């Protein structure tokens, strides 16, 4: 006969096993479901709200829209929305401006239910009077040109709503601008973008192109956008084709500027307006870029500083001599075709044997014989 001995499990294990069996049995009994009572009253939310706008609208804008959808067909005002949400009316107006801008909400154009509708004439869209900006170019004592634009009238939230209602392209601009900026528009941003179209009479697609360019260069400031728009107005840039060519030029000039700064070893500051003027002149010489970079390097070596004027003299000399290769440029520099280095008496403690007037005359004669 075979005897089988079994060791009894410890008391703790018995209790744990019993608990697990009880839990599994309860799981079979328990089921989860949505309380059907809330389905007794529902309202529809358009799929476009989720598909196109939920990433762009602010949380408050979404709350306002849900409240409007809940009371669809009933005309409500900002004060009523403010009381329902316990939010200041000004914030409610800002939240509404998003939906007005994309054409989902209208601002009271529909009459109230109890209002008489017989013989009601359609209300024509209202627009603000055009404003012609005064663009002025001023000359400073240092010779630097400053572009200024006269102060534009203030545009209220109500004005923006009226303009959006009468011009759907402005509403589309405000909607797409949020995608470009990656955030809902602030009241100031909405005001400036609207002003560029309504007061400055720029085409919405041109304004959007300008905004996209500024964002691509890391400049999201609306004041920067408005300043560039002022310069475009002064130069007559108004069409899509003109804006495209100008953006290509600005992009090219920015690339050239970065290359020249690198050639000078200049990383700690930006360029002055006078220094920027040299760069397109150098590229207009038709010399290869390595020659431009070499001139910048030698200018920094020989003067001990960033000297655009010194590099300009070198490049002018190479252009006059017909030098087009690095080899010929180096030979020219080594043969004495370079300005004499500045006296470094400050490093040795001695007096300079050549004053700045004589040095300037020497440089001028050497590069203009």
Your description of this structure?
It contains 17 helices and two strands. It is elongated and about 95 Å long. It has a two-stranded antiparallel sheet. α13 packs across α14. The N terminus and C terminus are likely disordered. Helix content is 58%, strand content 3%. With 369 residues, it is mainly α.
Tell me roughly what share of residues is in helical segments. 55-70%
* Count of alpha and pi helical runs: 17
User: What amount of the residues lies in strands?
Assistant: under 5%
Count the E strands: 2
* Amino-to-carboxy terminus distance: 127 Å
Order of helices and strands: HHHHHEEHHHHHHHHHHHH
The radius of gyration over CA amounts to: 35 Å
Query: What strand line-up does the widest sheet have?
Result: 1-2
Q: Runs with pLDDT <50, length 5+?
A: 1-5, 109-149, 338-369
Instruction: Please state the structural category.
Output: mainly alpha
Shape: elongated
Q: Describe the largest sheet.
A: 2 strands, antiparallel
User: What value does the average pLDDT take?
Assistant: 74
Oligomer: single chain
């Amino acid at each position: 006969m075979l005897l089988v001995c079994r060791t009894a499990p410890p008391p703790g294990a018995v209790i744990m096993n019993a608990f697990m069996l009880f839990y599994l049995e309860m799981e079979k009994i328990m089921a989860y479901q949505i309380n059907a009572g809330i389905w007794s009253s529902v309202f529809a939310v358009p799929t476009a709200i989720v598909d196109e706008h939920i990433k762009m609208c602010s949380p408050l804008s979404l709350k306002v829209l849900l409240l409007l959808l809940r009371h669809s067909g009933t005309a409500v005002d900002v004060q009523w929305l403010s009381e329902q949400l316990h939010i200041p009316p000004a914030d409610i107006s800002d939240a509404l401006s998003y939906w007005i801008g994309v054409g989902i909400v209208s601002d009271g154009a529909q009459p109230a239910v109890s209002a008489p509708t017989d013989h009601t004439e359609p209300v024509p869209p209202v627009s603000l009077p055009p404003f012609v900006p005064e663009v002025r170019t001023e000359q400073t004592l240092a010779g630097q040109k400053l572009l200024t634009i006269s102060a534009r009238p203030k545009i209220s939230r109500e004005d923006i709503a009226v303009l959006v209602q009468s011009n759907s392209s402005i509403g589309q601009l405000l909607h797409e601008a949020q995608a470009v900026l990656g955030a809902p528009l602030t009241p100031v941003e909405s005001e400036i973008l609207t002003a560029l179209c309504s007061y400055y009479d720029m085409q919405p697609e041109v304004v959007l192109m300008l905004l996209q360019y500024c964002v691509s260069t890391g400049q999201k400031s609306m004041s920067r956008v408005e300043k560039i728009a002022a310069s475009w107005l002064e130069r007559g840039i108004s069409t899509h084709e003109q804006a495209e060519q100008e953006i290509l030029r600005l992009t090219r000039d920015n690339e050239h500027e970065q290359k020249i700064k690198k050639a000078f070893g200049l990383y700690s500051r930006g360029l002055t307006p006078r220094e920027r003027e040299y760069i397109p002149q150098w590229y207009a010489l038709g010399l290869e870029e390595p020659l431009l970079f070499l001139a910048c390097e030698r200018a920094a070596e020989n003067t001990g500083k960033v000297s655009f004027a010194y590099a300009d003299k070198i490049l002018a000399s190479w252009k006059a001599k017909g030098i087009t290769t690095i080899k010929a440029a180096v030979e020219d520099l080594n043969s004495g075709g370079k300005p004499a280095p500045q006296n470094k008496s400050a490093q040795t403690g001695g007096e300079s044997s050549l004053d700045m007037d004589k040095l300037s005359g020497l440089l001028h004669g050497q590069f203009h014989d």
